[in-house]
Amino acid sequence: MGNIIILEETTINPITLIGKRAGVCWGADITDDTKNYKRGMDCITSNHGRTLEYVNVEMIIEGYSARVIREWYTHLGGAPTRLQASTRYIDYEHGFHYIVPESIRIDTKRYDIYLETIHQIQKALVELEELGTPKEDAALLLPLGMSTKIVDKRNLRSLVDMSHQRLCSRAYHEYRKMFADICMELQKISDEWKWIVDNLLVPKCDYLGYCPEKKSCGRVQKRMEG
Ligand SMILES: Cc1cc2nc3c(=O)[nH]c(=O)nc-3n(C[C@H](O)[C@H](O)[C@H](O)COP(=O)(O)OP(=O)(O)OC[C@H]3O[C@@H](n4cnc5c(N)ncnc54)[C@H](O)[C@@H]3O)c2cc1C
């Protein structure tokens, strides 16, 4: 079961902040938050993407698989940063948490195979430790299905772009679930975040108005050929 903890450094009123920053460049009155909010909305609806980069999102993402976090790391736009749980200093030899996907959980035979493999890895880790193997070397046996933890920091533009890829029904299901969990936590912060979650954090078919995927799920029509 994954968990998202939004850190206090996350911008509380992102739309107002966007308008406040843009207002500096327009010689506007940035002391009035009603005007800042309106200006922020104008920036967003006009697709002035750079202004979204002033909005900070910092969170702890934990309890999802190392595999999905590996996919998370492919989103480089906006130079995000993160720290991840160490495989040198944390003791995984004597047990690690792991994800069991639904397709495996519901089938006894699959479940047995999955658990037996995890058990074998854990056993090997203990035996390697008893032989004096350095932690960092034995850790190469850890599976992508083990759960991990990161502290992530990125801007809103990066998150919006990520949502287009990862809320797509063709994206890996754990990623879609993790992104939905992030949306759930962000919308609790403020009404402004609720608006952003509802209107900007959407799959690319909603954003584009058509599906660009070769193998479309059919939710939205593909673009008509020339
Ligand atoms: C169905 C599906 C299957 C996928 N399969 C795979 C897979 O098999 N393997 C895999 O590795 N990934 C896969 N992905 C992930 C995907 O292809 C991207 O790697 C991922 O979304 C991150 O890259 P990005 O360009 O979307 O985002 P970012 O790297 O965050 O970039 C965001 C935006 O910033 C700009 N940008 C970023 N870097 C540059 C740059 N260097 N120069 C100029 N502009 C830049 C671009 O406009 C870009 O669109 C898959 C995704 C989906 C939805």
**CATH class call of the largest domain:** Alpha Beta
- What's the Cα radius of gyration? 21 Å
DSSP helical segment count: 10
Q: At the third CATH level, what is the topology name of the largest domain?
A: Gyrase A, domain 2
Beginning-to-end CA distance, first to last residue: 46 Å
Give a concise summary:
This protein has 226 residues and is an alpha+beta fold.
What does this structure look like?
The termini are far apart. The protein is of the alpha+beta class. The radius of gyration is 21 Å and the shape is globular. It has 2 domains: 3-85 and 147-208, 2-Layer Sandwich (Gyrase A, domain 2), CATH 3.30.1360.170; 102-141. Helix 1 crosses helix 2 (33-45). A 4-stranded antiparallel β-sheet has the order 1-2-4-3. The chain is built from 10 helices and 4 strands, in the order βααβαβαααβαααα. The chain has helices at 14-26, 33-45, 66-72, 102-105, 108-130, 135-138, 156-166, 173-186, 191-199, 204-208, and strands spanning 3-6, 56-65, 81-84, 147-155. Bound molecules: flavin-adenine dinucleotide (FAD). Residues 74-77, 158, 161, 165, 168, 170-171 line the site of flavin-adenine dinucleotide.
